Amino acid sequence: MKRDPLEAFIAKNRADFDDAIPPLKVWADIDRQLEKPIRTKRRVWHALRVAATVALLLTIGGVMGSYFALGTNNDAVALLDDISPEYGELAAFYQNEIARQVQLVNTSNHSDPTIFQDLDQVDETMRELYEALMEAHKGTEQEIVENLIRSYQTKLTILQRVLERINEVEFKNNITNEVTL
């Protein structure tokens, strides 16, 4: 049987093939090719966009739900204004500030929809307090009103902390983007 010339050459020079070490340039090229980003980057960005869209929709739904949960904000202000004009002004201030903070959270791309669960709990407490306030006798509303004001403050504090974290994340992302450019 006739042997293939390539096989004959390899058989004759086998020892030379086994002892040869490729130059360092070959290994450097292999390393560079292994470090190249794979096309999964596009998939990751696509997945992140989808996740951000879902989070944004959940956030908007949570905000809308929390706003409509108490009924009209004017009713709450009017109820507190009947007790004392100062309480009405304070409630209006907190409601405006909370609305502004919620709008800032909604316009960011890094908001976490779970924060609205905390806000919903505060809203539930506030609903109960408003119901108790409507049934309270004249002159006994002070403690209920103080609890309502604390609830407004709690809601505002939650939103401020969320905005601080969002700003931190955006700041870190900006620094990372500047370094990679």
Features of the shown structure:
single chain, 181 residues, mainly alpha, 8 helices
Backbone structural class: mainly alpha
Count of strand segments:
0
The average pLDDT value, as a whole number, equals 77
Uncertain stretches of 5 or more adjacent residues:
none
**Spatial separation of the terminal alpha carbons:** 63 Å
What shape does the CA trace take?
rod-shaped
Q: Outline of this structure?
A:
With about 180 residues, the chain is mainly α. The protein has eight helices and no strands. Helices cover about 85% and strands about 0% of the residues.
Describe, in plain words, how this protein is organized in 3D.
The chain has a domain at 57-180. Helices cover 83% and strands 0% of the residues. It contains eight helices and no strands. Helix 7 (115-135) packs antiparallel against helix 8 (142-180). The radius of gyration is 32 Å and the shape is rod-shaped. The protein starts with a helix and ends with a helix. The model has no long low-confidence stretch (mean pLDDT 77).
